[in-house]
Amino acid sequence: MHAPAAAVAATRKADPRAGLSASSRLDLLRNEAGSGDEFSNRELSIALMERYDSTGDSDDLYEAMVWFDRRWAMSGNTELVARVVERYCGQRVVRWHWLCIGGE
User: How far apart are the C-alpha atoms of 28 and 100, rounded to whole Å?
Assistant: First the structure.
């Protein structure tokens, strides 16, 4: 009971996003990202890209790119840039994005 791991686990705050439905989680991330939270912006872009990967709904990819463009220069975005270039440049909604036409 007095072990360090137990103390840490007892004082750790619960993530408010845990246990939310996918739509509720996206809405929460949208609100936080819209307020300028860079972490939420990045997480929202990733979640929308993952949803696009699983459903193929181009609206998800388009929205992911809108959020991505709002904060494209933020730190830690290198992997998102690589993901867009490697996976999505051939998709209709991203084909003419500046990341995809840069070499032309």
Answer: 30
pLDDT digits (tens, 9 = 90+) for 22-39: 778 999 999 999 999 999
Q: Tokens representing 3?
A: 């072990």
Distance of alpha carbon 5 from alpha carbon 9, whole angstroms: 6
- Global pTM? 0.74
DSSP per-residue letters across the chain: --SHHHHHHHHPPPPTTTT--HHHHHHHHHHHHHTT-HHHHHHHHHHHHHHHHHH--HHHHHHHHHHHHHTTTSTT-HHHHHHIIIIITTSTTTTTSHHHHTT-
Q: Does 92 have pLDDT greater than 50?
A: yes
